[in-house]
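Recall the central idea of this unit: under ordinary conditions, the amino acid sequence of a chain determines the structure it adopts. In this exercise we apply that idea directly, starting from the sequence alone.
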Amino acid sequence: MPSLHDSSFNRLTQSHESDLWVTWAQYDDLIEQLAVQIQRSGFQFDQILCLARGGMRIGDVLSRVFEVPLAILAASSYRGAKGTEQGALSIAQQVTSTVGTLSGNILLVDDLVDSGVTFAAVGEHLLQAFPLITELKTAVLWQKASSTVKPDYVVVALTTNPWIHQPFEHYDTVTLAALTEKWSIVLNK
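Accordingly, the structure predicted from this sequence is:
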């Protein structure tokens, strides 16, 4: 398997500079490589906070592998045109967690850092809203060239700014009517 830092990885997945296509296997490999990178750093964290939606799968896997609680914070700036147009940043007022308030060392996880606006704003928000956070580190699978923020852990630092087509994004264009038609024969048995 090629290293993600080799140009061979980009040849496997990148159809051209404006698009990067990622399969489920590649996506899972990236998450595993992120886990190893974090483990090798020695950072001991008390909780993982993932940004919904992009960081949810990554946060779930890391929470299982590191055996630490997972918290979720919704933050979004991509809304229009099926999630492809960036607008004003919206950060949820509440963090969802089963272990109480955020405190101690926190690992903030998302799928990618694009411009860096979301990561910077969320980081500031967390440190102000949760004064019991001792240390906040950040982790992503991809960092685009346009990012003004450098996360603590990055699997792939891109030299361009492609649209990253993640394997679950096909659901952005699936309708309930299409699913109903697809599964009506099976469900009517």
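The radius of gyration is 18 Å.
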